[in-house]
Task: inverse folding
């Protein structure tokens, strides 16, 4: 099938690009065929975010979003920032000490999944062809040019043989291909290597975000309250942050973000999150409530210093697939949308001028440099590196000074040059961490949590987590790091099973929530995440 | 021969159902929906009958709001030739649905009406039966095998005692059970083609049907939480525990 533009991924970046393309075509009185594929069973099924949403990009894309019923229901009413000292105590930071980028006046607390569903319906109404339940498997590269994507086969058994219902993957060809796969997209990763797009920038940095949705008693509920936290249960060697947002209908989103630059291989992001909820500041809201949903997703947070070249012959990387998240604001949705819109504008102008595609969307870079997106990312470029280098307190103070006194424009730039998979210390040098048993009311075990993500995969299909060398997990990762995959995976995909005293590495691929943490953190970079059969993975309803 | 297949948009079977806090129903907003799996089986059967050459046209029909168009597009991707969308916002009860479907069946002058034995959302198991009664035509429910033979259909049903085979005169209503077939994977090219197949929109008024709400839902509540079990080591301990609870 031939289209003008093929978009991979139905998140904020891909959907905004699709909508912008159709809007521009209508304005110019031309016809543009736009096809968007999404590996989730529907648009929104794989979307997970906090989320406090800054409406800037949406205001530009669909100015009358309110009339059109966009699901932005809860304006931020109050912004609290806490420093958690230990499992019992926390300090609330006075507002004047909070960096400007953490002020959320004018923003909304939303479910990004809901917003994407709505954007999807807007895109379809404009004539975008959206095909959820189909996973793009790889890029079609001909004579050095990306010509589209090949969709994954359906109906292949565990050994790679066709079974009942076998359907070979279709080729979707486009004059331009926009990759909006989100953090650590598997096609984008390969194209970055192929075209050496990240050669001149700092290594990319990531975090894993774990989130739960709760329904809490009316007495504990304060719609519009936003809480962010730093400190316990994490520390300077294993940094991160936390959040708790009060949405509508007595719902709160609670989450922990763990930087994947953590050092202790015994650390378990999932268990840190579970014990975090017992802190009195958090428990006061959750007590008496009911957990509704659970999920996890990697976050691309390197910012401008790590941002690869976004264009390649025949297309672009947009949104978190490239790394447009603003870490100082801990927000990536509005920047992802804007990157998609800018990409659409570059691609459309080339096509309207009679271009045949296949080239690098050349006008993108200049437009990006002049956009508020670049300005935002520039002002925030030091945030993550300063925290990583100087710790939460001093790094935080530096960030405060830069954001509030210098408007984000220090005359120098901090760099963070160590990739996340190289930060682990040998297990022998690190304290073993003991996590409290879940109590079944505030904290839960991994399996009952994964159950709440409604994750489902066709059982009889090839394992989609590929080991370059199957021996590495037990021969190297186990003795050196006590195989951290058992702990960093938030869905219990990786297990070390001992049979007769002999350890064996087991991959429970059907549990995978598509967070991509293993692809990022494996110290040997031995695990490659590829897309399983389309339609599988989590079924997030409102994450 | 023309077949009419009705399909219903329901909350997807993978979704964990949540009851609204006020007990007025279950949460459907932002939740994945798909075609009722029993209706998928009916669609699949219709397509297989067409592939055998006994059926010439498949018409899919649904009743509901704008979002139900997705479900009709799925039916068209399965292989329906065209679709009819009875547009209706808000709750419509089973008898009204049955009246509307019967009206469509008459209007289409179809020979066979295939539909799932029940929908997985309300498990009512009554639409097919009511349509047959309204049309005053034979019905065969819970089909696990369907054979068409000129003016008759031979239908096998799985019952407690074994297999039961009915022969019904056409036109007739047949409702499909789980083991009738395994619906196919939808192929991307078929989904693409389905976007261009004809889809007609009608209202209840067009069909001469008046909505008649006869049932009022009093309350929806989640099933009780299972209480925690206890582990015992021996049969003796089990007996003691059961005695303590006054169960033996």
Result:
């Amino acid at each position: 099938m031939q289209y003008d533009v093929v978009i991979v991924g139905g998140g904020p970046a891909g959907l905004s690009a699709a909508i912008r393309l159709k809007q521009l075509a209508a304005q110019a009185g031309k016809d543009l065929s736009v096809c968007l594929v999404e590996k989730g069973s529907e648009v929104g099924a794989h979307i997970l975010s906090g989320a406090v949403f800054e409406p800037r990009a949406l205001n530009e894309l669909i100015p009358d979003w309110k009339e059109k019923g966009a699901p932005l229901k809860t304006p931020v009413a109050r912004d609290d920032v806490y420093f958690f000292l230990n499992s019992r105590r926390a300090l609330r930071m006075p507002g004047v000490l909070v960096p400007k980028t953490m002020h959320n006046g004018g923003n909304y607390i939303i479910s990004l999944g809901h917003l994407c569903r709505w954007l999807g319906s807007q895109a379809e109404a404009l004539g975008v062809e959206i095909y959820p339940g189909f996973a793009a498997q790889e890029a079609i590269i001909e004579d050095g040019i990306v010509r589209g994507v090949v969709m994954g086969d359906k109906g292949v058994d565990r050994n790679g043989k066709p079974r009942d219902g076998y359907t070979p993957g279709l080729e979707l060809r486009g004059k331009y291909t926009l990759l909006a796969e989100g953090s650590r997209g598997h096609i984008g990763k390969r194209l970055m290597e192929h075209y050496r797009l990240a050669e001149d920038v700092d290594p990319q940095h990531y975090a894993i975000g774990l989130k739960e949705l709760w329904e809490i008693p009316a007495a504990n509920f304060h719609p519009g309250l936003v809480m962010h936290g730093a400190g316990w249960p994490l520390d300077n060697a294993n940094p991160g942050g936390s959040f708790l947002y009060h949405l509508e209908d007595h719902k709160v989103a609670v989450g922990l973000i763990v930087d994947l630059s953590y050092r202790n291989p015994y650390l378990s992001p999932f268990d840190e999150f579970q014990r975090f909820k017992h802190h009195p500041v958090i428990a006061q809201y959750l007590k008496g409530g009911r957990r509704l949903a659970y999920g996890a997703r990697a976050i691309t947070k390197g910012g401008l210093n790590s941002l690869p070249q976004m264009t390649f012959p025949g297309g672009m990387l947009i949104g978190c697939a490239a790394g447009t998240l603003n870490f100082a604001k801990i927000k990536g949705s509005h920047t992802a949308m804007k990157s998609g819109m800018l990409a659409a504008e570059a691609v459309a102008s080339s096509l309207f001028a009679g271009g045949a595609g296949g080239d690098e969307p050349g006008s993108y870079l200049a437009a990006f440099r002049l956009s508020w997106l670049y300005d935002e990312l520039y002002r925030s470029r030091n945030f993550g590196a300063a925290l990583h280098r100087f710790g939460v307190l001093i790094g935080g103070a530096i960030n405060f000074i830069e954001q509030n006194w210098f408007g984000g424009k220090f005359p120098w730039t901090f760099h963070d040059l160590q990739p996340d998979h190289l930060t682990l210390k040998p297990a022998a040098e690190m304290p073993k961490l003991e996590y409290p048993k879940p109590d079944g009311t505030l904290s839960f075990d991994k399996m009952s949590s994964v159950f709440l993500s409604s994750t489902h995969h066709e059982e009889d299909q090839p394992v989609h987590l590929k080991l370059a060398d199957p021996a590495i997990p037990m021969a190297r990762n186990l003795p050196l790091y006590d195989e951290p995959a058992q702990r960093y995976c938030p869905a219990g995909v990786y297990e070390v099973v001992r049979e007769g005293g002999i350890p064996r590495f087991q991959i429970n691929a059907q549990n995978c929530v598509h967070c991509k943490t293993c692809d990022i953190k494996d110290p040997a970079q031995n695990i490659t995440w590829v897309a399983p059969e389309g339609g599988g993975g989590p079924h997030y309803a409102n994450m | 021969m023309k077949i009419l297949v009705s399909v219903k948009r329901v909350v997807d079977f993978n979704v964990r159902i949540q009851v609204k806090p006020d007990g007025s129903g279950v949460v459907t907003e932002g939740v994945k929906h798909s075609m009722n799996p029993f209706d998928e089986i009916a669609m699949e059967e219709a397509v297989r009958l067409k592939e055998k050459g006994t059926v010439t046209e498949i018409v899919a029909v649904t009743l509901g709001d704008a979002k139900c168009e997705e479900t009709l597009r799925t039916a068209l991707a399965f292989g329906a030739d065209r679709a009819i969308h009875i547009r209706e916002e808000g709750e419509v009860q089973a008898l009204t649905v049955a009246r509307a479907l019967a009206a469509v069946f008459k209007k289409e002058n179809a020979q066979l009406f295939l539909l799932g034995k029940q929908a997985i959302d309300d498990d009512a198991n009554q639409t097919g039966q009511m349509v047959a009664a309204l049309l005053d035509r034979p019905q065969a429910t819970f089909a696990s095998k369907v054979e068409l033979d000129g003016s008759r259909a031979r239908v096998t049903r799985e019952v407690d005692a074994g297999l039961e085979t009915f022969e019904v005169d056409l036109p007739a209503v047949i409702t499909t059970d789980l083991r009738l077939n395994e619906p196919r994977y939808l192929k991307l090219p078929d989904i693409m083609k389905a976007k261009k197949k004809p889809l007609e929109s009608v209202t209840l008024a067009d069909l001469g049907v008046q909505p008649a709400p006869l049932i009022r839902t009093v309350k929806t509540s989640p099933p009780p939480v299972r209480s925690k079990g206890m582990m015992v080591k021996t049969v003796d301990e089990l007996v003691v525990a059961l005695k303590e609870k006054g169960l033996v």
Q: What stands out?
A: Residues 51 and 110 of chain A are 6 Å apart (CA to CA). The two ends of chain A are 33 Å apart (CA to CA). Residues 383-405 of chain A form the longest helix (23 residues).
